[in-house]
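Why do we care about 3D structure at all? Because function follows from shape, and shape follows, mostly, from sequence. That is the central idea of this module. The next example makes it concrete: a single protein chain, its amino acid sequence, and then its structure expressed as tokens.
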Amino acid sequence: MNNRDRLQSIRKDKDFFVGIDSDGCVFDTMDLKQKEFFIPNGIKYFNLFAISREVRETWEFVNLHSDTRGTNRFPALVRVFELLGRRKDIREKGFELPDISSLEYWTEKESKLGNESLNEYIKNNADPFLSQVLEWSLAVNHDIATWLRGVSPFNYVKEALERISLVADSVVVSQTPAEALEKEWEEHGLSKFVKLIAGQEYGTKTEHIRYAATGRYAPENILMIGDAPGDLKAAKDNKACFFPVIPGKEAESWEILYKEALDRFLTNTYKGEYEAGLLRSFEMALPDQPIWEQL
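And the structure:
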């Protein structure tokens, strides 16, 4: 059975469906993973030591503090290099950034953006930069698997997930590799609250919801919980509801979901003014322009 079939074969037991992102949403791991694993490996594998300060600032903006927060690692890497190429301070140093055209092409044509699909592509399209990208990505996964553990879910997550499991069919909808997701959710006893843990190998978040829920549940009975614009897009693409876990206010967001928003979702009073108010706060927290371009 392929991953699409696994999503489509989820048994429908309830009238409601909830998709749940993981990194930065359920677990306070997004900052940790980016700052301690993605960025240091990026500097090393792409030989960016001479501009490490600019790289860290740009990388954190792309992956943590902007409207591209939570994007799959490969398109995010494209965005990082694009912004680095626009920085005056890097141009003044005379630093030559790598040619990323092959990565741009692959990310545009491939829907299942993971290490396995990249490796298969490289076998038939040898490219030194893509090989570097794969080595970087594998190193990130290895280091996270080796070192990252013990990071607890945000407050009110467990209570909310337990309640969701009683009233809705739920699935993890994430662009993190499935193996890492399964480890985290098992470690903290959360996997029992969801029917499937879908990672990047299952396709995009939009595809996760489409195959698992669209056409099986009424659109107003589908809810995506996430902390990034990509989660909002996945909800909109499927005409579903969206609940934002606002960066910097994660525990507060989960408390609102547990005590208030979930009841509105279950009584079909969520869409409209209530959801719009939550979205305004969410969008204000994630700008689209880096501060160094505003100066």
